[in-house]
């Protein structure tokens, strides 16, 4: 490679990396619902649009919606009660709660903007409405925490950084670091959503200690061969239980 071409590539790489960091700084804002500073690139309207566009495909991946309208009505009732008794009511997000037909995958998740899902496999293991409130409150926490928004913004940042760094042969290092960064944020997001879920449960009149029961269900479902916490994007259920207990004491004292 000619020396002149190398210099050009180097300058381009430095410029792209600098642009990535400048844009990153400009995207920093304080989440009005959690008080945490985050890098955010999507408006609430964009979050809602992404969630609504993605919801049908996500449902299809899990066998569609559950056919029993009574179960779906219960999920709606508990979800809306949580929203109407918390700060979620005063946000621009449009909350919908979906019971998925999937009877094998124990899971619940939220899309940007308020689309929340729970599989029948998890729903059927819950012992009462309080535990259902714990699951749905946790998912509402992901929405208010803007976790998907933050993840999308992080992904764009690392894509830009890798593109620029590749011009100076550091692409692989930047990519690996980016993956580690996203992993750490994933654990924090789960713990933040657990704490918000406890708060929403208390505000709506549900027993927050039942969220501990949900953690035990998840622990039992994972079995004895579950991966250590440091190898997973989710905190170990035992660690989550301790944090949930702390949140219960915190918000009960505050109330």
UniProtKB/TrEMBL annotation:
It comes from the Bacteria. Binds 1 zinc ion per subunit. It holds the Pfam family Peptidase_M48. PANTHER family: METALLOENDOPEPTIDASE OMA1, METALLOENDOPEPTIDASE OMA1, MITOCHONDRIAL. This is Peptidase M48 domain-containing protein. It comes from Winogradskyella haliclonae. Its cofactor is Zn(2+). Belongs to the peptidase M48 family. Keywords: Hydrolase, Metal-binding, Metalloprotease, Protease, Zinc. Residues 72-247 form the Peptidase M48 domain.
């Amino acid at each position: 490679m000619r020396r002149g071409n190398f210099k050009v590539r180097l300058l381009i790489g430095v410029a792209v990396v600098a642009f990535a960091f400048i844009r990153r700084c400009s995207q920093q804002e304080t989440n009005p619902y959690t008080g945490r500073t985050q890098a955010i690139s999507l408006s609430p309207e964009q979050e809602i649009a992404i969630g609504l566009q993605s919801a049908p495909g996500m449902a299809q991946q899990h066998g569609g919606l559950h056919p029993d309208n009574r179960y779906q009505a219960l999920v709606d009732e508990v979800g809306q009660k949580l929203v109407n008794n918390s700060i979620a009511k005063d946000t621009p997000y449009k909350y919908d709660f979906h019971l998925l037909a999937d009877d094998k995958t124990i899971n619940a998740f939220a899309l940007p903007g308020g689309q929340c899902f729970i599989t029948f496999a998890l729903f059927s293991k819950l012992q009462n409405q309080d535990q259902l409130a714990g699951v749905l409150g946790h998912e509402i926490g992901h929405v208010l925490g803007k976790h998907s928004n933050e993840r999308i913004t992080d992904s764009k940042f690392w894509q830009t950084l890798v593109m620029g760094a590749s011009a100076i042969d550091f692409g692989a290092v930047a990519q690996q670091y980016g993956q580690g960064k996203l992993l750490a944020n994933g654990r924090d997001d789960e713990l933040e959503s657990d704490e918000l879920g406890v708060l929403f449960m208390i505000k709506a009149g549900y027993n927050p200690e039942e969220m501990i029961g949900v953690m035990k269900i998840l622990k039992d479902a994972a079995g004895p061969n579950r991966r250590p916490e440091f190898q997973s994007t989710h905190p170990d259920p035992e660690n989550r239980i301790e944090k949930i207990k702390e949140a219960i004491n915190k918000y009960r004292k505050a109330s």
